[in-house]
Amino acid sequence: MRPREELEAISWYWKNYQYVLAFLFAIEEINKSPHLLPNHSLGYDLYNTFPSDRRSLQGAVFGLSGGKQTLPNYNCQAQKQSVAILVGTTSALSFEIGTLLELYKIPQVTYGPFDPMLSDIKQFPSLYQMAPRDTFLTTGIVRLLLHFGWMWVALLVSDDIQGDRFLQDLKAKMVTNDICVAFTQKLPAITGVHTIQDIEIIISTAHVHILYGDLGSLLNIGMSTNFHLTAGKVWIMGNPSTSQWDVVFDYLDDKCHYYHGSLLFSDNKREIPGFRHFLRMLNFSQYPDDYYFTKFWIDQLYCSLSELHCGRIESCEPNSSLEFMPDKTDMMSVSAPSYFVYNAVNMVAHALHKRLLENLEVRSLGDVDQPIIPPWQLHPFLRKIQFTNGAGDNTSLDDKNNHVTQYDVQNLVRFPDKSWVLVKVGEFFSKSPHNQDLVINEEMIKWPVIFRETPQSVCTQKCVPGFRKTSQEGRPICCFLCVSCSETDISNQTDAPQCMQCPAQEYPNSERSRCLPKNLTFLGYEDALGMVLGFTALCLSLVTVVVFGVFVKHRDTPIVKANNRALSFILLISLLPCFLSSFLFIGRPNTATCILQQVTFALVFTVAISTVLAKTMTVILAFKATMPRRILRYLLLSGASNAVIPICSLIQVIICAIWLGSSPPFVDTDSHSEPRSLIIVCNKGSVTAFHCVLGYLGSLALGSFTVAFLARNLPDTFNEAKFLTFSMLLFCSVWVTFLPFYHSTKGKVMVAVEVFSILASSAGLLGCIFAPKCYIILVRPSKNSLKGFKKKKCQSK
């Protein structure tokens, strides 16, 4: 190592020196191996990489010139020509010297994080990356967010090509899974500790911050003036460079406790067999020509320089070893870049070994004692190289297989004594099924001290069952409103996008989170309304029977004989089933009752109305028969008015027969009238036939009313024309009122309205026609005789 400028010693940079030690260990291991490059030894030159384009290019020119001069195209020490150059830990260095090295076709092997830009074969055909692609890193992060329900996160990424690619890929997966970004902040790239910038971190309601960047990104955030405002944020770090977290914390010291509880995605920890023993046995005298090796022991293990030999260490403290370093820098734990350095040296050695074997096949042994291998001849072997390293891992540069497929999820924990430890709390397997790719042990996770349980990170709290999400205009999809479902809808899941309607046989509970089965109900006798109607129908039926008995007992009296005694008996007999038909509407409907309801109602009321019409016609014929007209007298004596009943009834029978033949009534359920009940009702079947029945009854009633109204002024001795008029007026009024009420009600009330109309109209006929006659028969019997009739007739004259 030949440094031309002194670099300020910063303790937290010494962790990177492990890469040099891994390089030296790999060289010594190969040189001692009897199987790899036998009878040959690997040599090396080490050059420091400074945070400067000029200094990086200067180091590359020194290497190309043999190490003592800056004349890359003139080198008299050809035997010291390098066959490969190992570069790291940032891709920026490869970009800086890649074009220069490409002129000489020298293989450039990088051990830093994988950079997609460096994989461009057209631009960098001689460059090889040891680090595998982080193809599934964004998938693992999204799966972690979904596992904890973190739907509102902030993104902080490095302001470079890698950061842009990561951001683009992550956002695409987040959109697919409805995860929203609270804000995105680009972190400026830094090239050294002196270029750290004071950035202003955006603060939001997101409790989860995803950080993707190199070591400088961590330093930039930690050194920001408002970094303390990130207390209580869960950091998710996804770049392999964040494996150097201990370096950052050594530098940040008291401010680094804000990273406590962070989660890190890292490649599986790998061990290099024998490396820990190599580090443990190192002493200050092994590499006296290495300036930085000497400086490392002086700075980290407090050794003293010799006064006689300039730059040589004279003595160190007892038990000075990398295993017991007093500083916080841990040199014994293998970092990912150190593992890649170890693999890079072995890869070059295997390629060189295959190239030498090829020479042995075409040339004699004497001619290849010290062969000179041009660097460009290694490329065919490097591209196809496959070997198993000392750790037993299969190593290949095949782009199809060189992917990170398994990540460790680690929890960053800080103890009260300010010590730190990474605790493995889970794993992500990209090749496992979707529901099994992430394994997390939540009980092992230590969250930031502000959280007593697993933190939440949402823009809006979840909509509980019974509510649905509705988006807000101009805001991310995660920032929504929770709107209660309507009375007929439910939502049985959290964050339901929409409510759904319960089936007809079910209704929503009070929380509108699930559907409950509706109770079957109908107009029964246990209901107060059904009980009242049934009792009323029974009483009116008994009254009808009593009236019929009174008329039978006094059948020979003038008032019963008047206006056709037979028609009065027929009317009373027809009124009895009118009242009794109400019981067909009360109770649980079945097919038989549904058919009998309408047919019975239609026929018995037709008989009753036609009987009233016949009685009215009888009154008119009786008074008109006194005139000298034989036809009227013949009609009266022949009982022609009685023929009205069978004729009118026959017409109704035909209508009912057509109804039953085409679309008869049937049992149905009403799920809309009452929200929590399923009402069993009788469906009319053909609505047209039902209205035809009502229309025919209405026409018959209107005709009876008209005839009775015309006969109202006839002599009123035993004349019931007025009573018939009033009865039909009441009948028509009830049924005219019934129609709008019937169609405006539903369920049991609709049935009750129909029953009430039947009872009211029947009671009107019974009361208006027979009540006056019963009053005379029972209370004023003196008027119910021929003597009383003559006396009243004389008084009227």
CATH architecture of the largest domain: Up-down Bundle
Uncertain residue ranges: 1-9, 632-638
Shape: rod-shaped
Q: Largest beta sheet: what is the strand line-up? A: 5-4-6-7-8-13-14-15
Q: Mean of the pLDDT scores?
A: 80
The major sheet is characterized as:
8 strands, mixed
Q: What's the gyration radius in Å?
A: 53 Å
For the record, the count of structural domains works out to: 4
Strand content: 5-15%
Number of helices: 21
Quick one: CATH class of the largest domain?
Answer: Mainly Alpha
Task: Please characterize this protein's 3D structure.
The chain has 21 helices and 24 strands. It is of the alpha/beta class and 797 residues long. The chain has 4 domains: 11-131 and 271-282 and 321-392, 3-Layer(aba) Sandwich (Rossmann fold), CATH 3.40.50.2300; 137-270 and 404-444, Rossmann fold; 467-517; 528-796, Rhopdopsin 7-helix transmembrane proteins, CATH 1.20.1070.10. The strands form 8 sheets. The chain has an 8-stranded mixed sheet. Strand 16 (467-471) and strand 17 form a beta hairpin. The longest helix has 34 residues, at 591-624.
Concise structural overview:
This protein is α/β, with parallel strands linked by helices. The protein has 21 helices and 24 strands.
Key phrases:
single chain, 4 domains, 797 residues, 3-stranded parallel β-sheet, Rossmann fold, alpha/beta
List the helices and strands and how they pair.
Layout: H1 17-32, H2 53-64, E1 85-87, H3 91-102, E2 108-110, E3 127-129, H4 137-148, E4 152-158, H5 161-176, E5 180-187, E6 208-212, H6 215-222, E7 234-237, H7 245-252, E8 263-267, H8 275-280, H9 291-301, E9 304-305, E10 313-315, H10 336-362, H11 379-384, E11 386-388, E12 394-396, E13 406-414, E14 420-429, E15 438-440, E16 467-471, E17 480-484, E18 489-490, E19 500-501, E20 506-508, E21 515-517, E22 519-521, H12 528-553, H13 558-561, H14 565-580, H15 591-624, H16 630-638, H17 644-662, E23 666-670, E24 677-683, H18 687-710, H19 721-744, H20 747-778, H21 786-796
Parallel strand pairs: 1-2, 2-3, 4-5, 4-6, 6-7, 7-8, 22-24
Antiparallel strand pairs: 8-13, 9-10, 11-12, 13-14, 14-15, 16-17, 18-19, 20-21, 23-24
Helix pairs in contact: 1-10, 2-3, 4-5, 6-7, 12-14, 12-20, 14-15, 14-20, 15-16, 15-17, 15-18, 17-18, 18-19, 19-20
